[in-house]
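Escalation from tier 1.

The customer reports that the assembly of two entities below gives different structure tokens on two consecutive runs. Tier 1 could not reproduce it. I'm attaching the input and our single run for tier 2 to review.
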Amino acid sequence: MINNWKSKVTPTWCPGCQDYVIFAGLQNTLNKLDLDQDKTVIVYDIGCIGNMADFVKGWGIHSLHGRSIPTAVGVKMANPELNVIAIGGDGGIYGEGLSHLIAAARLNIDLTVIVANNQLYSLTTGQSSPTTPKGSKTKSTPKGVESVPVTPIELIKAVNPEALAQRVNCNEPLKVNEAIEKAIKHKGFDLLDLNQLCVSFGKQLR
Amino acid sequence: MDKVTTVKIAGPAGTGIKSAGLLLAKMLTESGYNFKDYSEYPSLVRGGHNTYQVSFSSGEVYSVHKMVDIFVSLVPGHWQEHQEEFGKNTLIFADNEGKNNIPFGKMCEQLGGTIYSNTISLGLISFLLDLDKNKNTKILKEYFGSDSVNIKAFEVGWQWGENNYRQKVKSQKSKVKKEKMIVDGNEAVGWGLVKAGLDMFVAYPMTPATGVLHFLAKNQDEFKIKVIHPEDEIAVASIASGASMAGSRSAVGTSGGGFALMTETISFDAMAELGVVYFLSQRPGPATGMPTWTSQGDLLFAVHSGHGEFTKAVVAPGDVEEAFELGKKSLNLANEFDIPVIMLSDKNLSESSANVRDLAKEKKEIVESKKVIPGKKMTIKMYNSYEHDEEGYSIEDSQNTLKMVEARLKKEKAVLKKMPKVNLFGSNKAKKIIVSWGSTKGAILEALKEMKNKEDYAFMQIRGLWPIDPKIGQIINAFKERILIENNATAQLGTLLKSQMKVDFEKVILKYDGRPFFPEEIKKFLI
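Tier 1 run:
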């Protein structure tokens, strides 16, 4: 299969990082669905997974931290013919930009949101995120996280029962592929929460 | 010189002062007068103390006057705090309070309701000003419907005037005026954006900028634009920027507090090179401040908004016509140079009306962006918030960084050439020059119009505030005496000019109580 979606830049993620699973799954799916490259825009958040902006060849915006969703909403509203995908981590989508996630889900705009959820801020070397389990000791919470974690699927279901909300573990790459395909094909808002573990800072969560 | 007449109506919120103002403006326009109006209201929906005032003339009128000729208190208790606006010939009407007693309460009772005082007062005012009764009745029928009690209420007010006031308020009859479109600053900005090919307007409501949102939302189908009200101001700016990437000519509207949230996106627009117009209508801060009052306190905030070093443009219209012109200009600048453009207004300009030429008939003027957009078979690009190369890939090497920083800053020179020029009123041989910006224009021109020694003064209104033309300093310095007038507490234009060119002012006139300058105050300061 010819892959049109790989840029000249070699990925910079840590060896063994499950972001490679998401990257491969996205390329496989985009190729399989044969999406028009000129009519597909991917908006990336800030964080490890957001760095995929450099590794994918295609129209895109590497937006600000937490703002991938509203930026993607703007792209879709300006030109509804475009396929629009937002990709970010648990920090950007469930933390800095949580209100945008809820608003986009309520709007039921035809947008696919993919979240690499490793329960940590990893690009900033391992602080607690909105999905870090309560009690976990991280660099920013040496005495343990005090908040209960966000539960994204339940949250989306609560604000829009019509939205598609999927949760898959990156340990199962084939299921990741299937879920990405289902998400992109879905008309209306969808969230794909991809559970993963950070190979560099994830040990803190044990 | 043509006489200027001023009428003021006061009462609590919910008594129809706004609609009375709107109707009076229409009536004056139909009778061929030029007018400028101004309203004051607290940030609440019922009660409090609201006012509407209008100054009109058969000649030019640049701003409302402080001193009123006719004052109407719609319910008891709303004239007392305005005594310094009354001259010896001012007619003050109030319900049974020892002034010119007009029995609004009884009249309303007889009409079978409580909120007809506003229309009764329009009848009285129309009689006193010798306006065309038939035309005015027609205006009321169009507004309320022909069988409305308000038509009777107008008649009641007119009759009461005829029975009690034989003498009319002297004002020159006007020739028929062609310019009949009544718009406020916010609507004029909306028209300007539309005439520069606006595709999308995004806003979160914030007084005094909300009028643009209301105007464009209401007319979105006719204008063939998308109008969006999202969850917060950060989303507002992000949506507009995303839309710009996909080829939309987009603009947002807000006041200081909302603009504060948008500053991260201004920086993003600069880095990703996306054109967006930020309409910022100022009100007094800091924080929530005084939402429904006026200020010029965000000039330096706008000029310095956004982290990092990059090119942006800041423009400030001085009146309704300029709000239209610079609305157009802003969207074209944003797209021609792919930069954030901030258009500064304030409550005094945004929510005050005037009659102008028919803006609907103005031609569209569109300068297209040269950036590549998806779906048009152009070269694929990544719009990146990180430092990047020309294709948009993130890159941090020294050579590329220097090149890209300089490329973003180099735009400034080209932008400066397209910035709105200063307005210089009066002769450059005058002894003194007044320098100001924004909505103070009206009160300054109105003051100068009426001053005996007006030949002594020139007036420079700076409309392009950033990047700022360094030649402005030479023009100002050629005058013997230099006077700065600003509607803020810290002389922000003065600071800006001093930082960019060698300019000093002999006299600085500042007002920062949430109220605009009135021409009478400026005259007093200048003498």
